[in-house]
User: What shape does this take?
Amino acid sequence: MYIDGIALSGYRSFGPTLQKIGPLGKINLLIGQNNSGKSNVLRFLHEHYSEIYKSVARRGGQPKFSQQLDRHIGLESHAAIGFALQLEGHNYEDLMTKVEKKDTSNILNRKLIADLLSQLADKDKLVWFLYSSPGLNSPFSLHQDFTKRAASIKDRSLWNSVWSFLTQTTGGDINVNWIPETLNSLSQMSFILPKIEMIPAVRRIGDKGSTLTDFSGLGIIDRLARLQNPEHTQQKTKEQFEKINCFLRNVIENDSATLEIPYDRDMILVHLDGKTLPLSSLGTGIHEVVILASAATVLNKQVLCIEEPELHLHPTLQKKLLRYLQENTDNQYFISTHSAHLLDCDDIAIFHIRLENGQSIVEPARSPSDKSSVCENMGYRASDLLQSNCIIWVEGPSDRIYIKHWIKSMAADLVDGVHFSIMFYGGSLCSHLSAEDTILHDFIALRQLNRKIAIVIDSDKSRPRTKLSKTKERLRDEFNQGPGFAWITKGREIENYIDPSALTAAIQAVHPSAKIVNCDDLFDNASSYKKSPKAKPVDVDKVKVAREVTKSPANLDVLDLRQQVMKLVEFVRASNGMSKTSTSA
Assistant: This one.
């Protein structure tokens, strides 16, 4: 269903240098300044991708297009486009299942195809099928650079074997037949044509009788009415309507909210706290986000291009929308945006588009430094970016994994990065921190970063009567003055909150040589193991162990864990102005 990669040159703002956009994911952000070329990518997908696919991939790359692509200004002699196949993913499996399996020889042929594709792949394990056109009225054919890359594979027997299998032909020439015809056959097999829709930047809910020509909101009332009251053969669509209701409740943080389309379909109503109001009365932001979520829910296994979803949306709403798209829909999304608030959302592909010498340049933004560069290019400064409404300070990465796991088990509606953030202070830096409002010494003033803070501190006790260090006592007292609190572990360290048998199993899964693990007592050093009774203790990989432990449901009935996690949950809810709700687990 998904598109794995696209490549563009010679189209609108894209100049002669081919720009590859991939590997693509379920949600793909195209971020950049105004006039950088973001909307041109969406336009290409919406208006031309399907036509190019049919003309090039399905028909051997030779026919002309029925509609001309808008060429780059001043560039009339060359244009190139491309598709990608990702080896590690659904499309590769689709390709392999299309190879006939009638006899044992085909198992060998499938391995030959896999070998050829792996040699054609780039460092991201993408195989690019590139096509170019020499002029405005010329057909597209295999891109010269691509054929050179393919020709660099010198294994003639490999080319011949794959070509013979795919075309059911013998003989031929490696340059005239084997390479071009094999590539055409593979591209023809590997692409599943998705339907592509567009949600433009200008969105509004249409009047009664609005047509369903696009997903700008004009036909949304009729679409929602069909979900609310489907035909008897399509009763499962009611589940989609309930998803939209759940999203609305999450957005406005009110469990009583329910949408309704009245009999005459002239508006969208919201039932809220015993009252019935038109959706428009909840404000433009809610109005907009319901349009976007509804369109994404109505569509099924398609590609949806969205222009600037952040318009009229508070940063928290923006993140909630992306979370909804990720977890409650099965489409692929291409989103053009100026919003830096979306960059830290999980499991999204980010591409920075900028204009350089009159041409659009595309670069993936994968690392934190890449994202920082994007923010600087967009003109953002640290003071412009939204912080979460509260921060939980922990010693290191493994603590963060456990805390997230425990909070999720008790309150699945609380989202890291939206309702709270978890930050590291590092055990050795503990003595330099302070939660005081007025700092007279050389301390790092945490409340100046965020007023609402909590901290989790390992007691480091080796025996029950061991006293806390003066630094930890000071931090405990400062944090407990509020808002927020200090959680001092009842045992030696946070790992002592893990059931001993579960922790032992996790350590041995990560470190198979671990023969002796001491974690039965709450003051044991649970972060080390021995390979034999006389061997020296070896430190475990705490992050890998934490990930192994959190694969299983959380057990909060250890020491004072449930009580402390409950305090964290209540603190996060209060910091976000959320009412107390029942918790799970």
Remarks:
- The CA atoms of residues 1 and 192 lie 6 Å apart.
- The first helix runs from residue 38 to 57.
- The chain has 16 helices and 22 strands.
